[in-house]
TrEMBL record:
SUPFAM superfamilies in UniProt: alpha/beta-Hydrolases (SSF53474), TPR-like (SSF48452)
Protein name as annotated: Uncharacterized protein
Organism, as annotated: Vibrio chaetopteri
Alphabetical list of InterPro entries matching this protein: AB_hydrolase_fold, TPR-like_helical_dom_sf
Length: 418
């Protein structure tokens, strides 16, 4: 086992220790936060779990497990005469921070996007954790109840349905503070890095106050009826699984009427609208437009709303897709990447071929095998007389072979004048 594959110690000039846990899919020998914490005055222990087992088990003999990480942390605390510990991490790293922070009676634990209960449907642990039959998942409630940690701060994006649901599973304790951050999704640390110096905040022991100064806490923090969290999570699971039940639809309607949280009200309304898209498109359009007007940052609504907008007209749908891209810039792993496709389709149908290129290329960058986007790119490039690009984006030339320009195009590419 190569120790540098799983941990790295950065020496500081204090008796403070920051234990920074990496998120999932970080390669061996690499560590989350290693660049942003490079200037820290504290000792920083970076940990990684490149086999994505949430810091609790190993898949092969040469990989780290619970005892390995526990011993590494213990040795650093003893050798460095540590008097103050901060455990810190996001997503999979948040689980590690909570587990080991509780084990070592941390002074402060900061968790961003924590999965308190592993392997729930459509969670990251369900997606990335390669399980083994003999895996033993720790009882976090036992760790928390028996630990003497001083403070646990749980930050989660109010728009991440899985994290929102997971927050409702965490027991209430005086030492545990929950903060749903309005308009944020699962990946919170990149937003922190953009706004303030994380190393300085951790050194000064005021990360908690920095986060609250730069981000708004959503009003779902006031919702005590945990069944509403379960309802919106169930709706999310059904939507991701491609079906909907009348029971869930009825529960969403009841939740909209009964919640005291505007954030949860419009999340429930969004998922009700999404579940009704196929069976009641006009009602779905009404609900999603309501969400757009009152909570435009709920990006999940836009692919469906853009499609439904075509019921009225392409112009109306185009207006929605342009609006959506003002609020949301889809990235590779974003479920809302379809916004780019829908916007490209609107522009294509309006014959705005020059404007099609940018969003269509961005979508194609992440969805290489999407034939319809290739079709739109090929035709758009043809209309712009960019024949070489048209051929590049035409799958197996089938699109171009059906166009009257095909013969002339081949002559031009072969250097023969028509």
């Amino acid at each position: 086992m190569t120790d540098s594959s799983f941990y790295k110690l950065q020496n500081g000039n204090t008796n403070d220790l920051i234990v920074a846990f990496s998120a999932a899919t970080v390669p061996k020998g690499k560590f989350s936060f290693s660049s942003v914490l490079a200037t820290s005055r504290s000792n920083v222990l970076y940990l990684n779990c490149p086999h994505n087992s949430w810091y609790i088990n190993k898949l092969d003999e040469d990989e780290a497990d619970f005892e390995y990480y526990k011993n590494i942390i213990k040795n650093v605390i003893e050798k460095k005469n540590i008097t103050h510990t901060t455990f810190f991490g996001g997503s999979m790293g948040a689980y590690g921070a909570l587990l080991y922070g509780a084990l070592f009676n941390a002074d402060v634990i900061h968790c961003f996007g924590l999965e308190y209960e592993l392997f729930t449907p459509h969670s990251n642990s369900k997606k990335y954790f390669i399980t083994k039959p003999d895996i033993i998942v720790p009882d976090l409630s036992h760790f928390l109840a028996s630990s003497k940690f001083k403070s646990l701060n749980l930050f989660y994006g109010e728009r991440c349905i899985v994290d929102l649901y997971q927050s409702s599973l965490i027991p209430a304790m005086d030492r545990i503070n929950k903060y749903p951050l309005r308009d944020l999704t699962h990946s919170i640390p990149p937003s922190l890095i953009e706004r303030f110096d994380i190393a300085e905040a951790l050194d000064n022991k005021d990360l908690h106050s920095k986060v609250l100064n730069f981000f708004h806490v959503g009003d779902s923090i006031n919702e005590k009826k945990h069944i509403i969290y379960r309802v919106v999570y169930k709706a999310y699971v059904e939507l991701e699984s491609g079906y909907s039940s009348q029971l869930t639809i009825n529960q969403l309607k009841a939740s909209i009427a009964n919640t005291d949280s505007c954030s949860l009200k419009f999340l429930c309304m969004a998922y009700l609208g999404l579940l009704l898209e196929r069976t009641s498109p006009l009602k779905s359009l009404e609900l999603l437009n309501n969400v757009k007007s009152n909570s435009p940052h709920i990006s999940e609504i836009y692919p469906s709303l853009i499609r439904l907008g075509r019921i009225s007209s392409i112009d109306y749908s185009l207006e929605i897709s342009e609006f959506a891209l003002q609020f949301h810039k889809p990235m590779q792993l974003d479920l809302q990447i379809d916004i780019l496709y829908q916007h490209s389709l609107n522009l294509f149908r309006k014959k705005k071929f020059e404007e099609v290129i940018e969003p269509a290329l961005e979508f194609h960058r992440y969805r290489k095998n999407h034939n319809h986007i290739k079709y739109m790119l090929a035709i758009s490039f043809l209309e712009l007389n960019d024949y070489e690009s048209a051929l590049k984006y035409s799958p197996a030339l089938e699109v171009l072979k059906e166009t009257p320009m095909y013969g002339g195009l081949l002559k031009q590419l072969n250097g023969v004048d028509e």
